[in-house]
Amino acid sequence: MPAHTLTLYPYLLRDTWVFDDERTNLHEEAFVLGATEALSKLVEIKEIPRASKGFALTFSGDGFDEHDAELLWLRADPSGTGNWYATTLADEQFELWLCPALFCYFDVTPPRIYVKAEPLPAGISPHWKPKPGDEARRFVEAPQQGRDHDHDEAEPDAEGPPRSRA
Q1: Mean pLDDT computed over every residue of the chain
Q2: What was the pLDDT predicted at 158?
Q3: CATH of the domain spanning 6-119, picked from 1.10.8, 3.40.1110, 2.40.50, 3.40.1350
């Protein structure tokens, strides 16, 4: 693996993949707008047991031989709040949005993100329960049951990914 990889432990909440990360104070941060569908396909392909209870998702902006998927940057979101990526999993194409939480892990928008999914390691809980006084935050909440979220299509930006979050 490259020197700079990070691992999150997503789990299902209301049919949406979310993650907690005490390092960044993120609690129940949701993967939405295509990301939940792509993650569901990835854990299906990898046949990860009990993935809904949590699995290890290792990622890096640097390629590594063991990666399961490569996300390719498409464009900044027209709202200025996130970035769109594309990937192919088992001959199925996915377009997915990554919210501004991306910048908790990258200083600039990565043109590629490499990911690997594995079973949850023994002794790891994907849940972080903030203690009184901890300031948990969330950029995107898991949708409530029955809510449908559409998004506007935008043309890809030919100039490449933005270089900073500003």
Answers
A1: 86
A2: 38
A3: 2.40.50
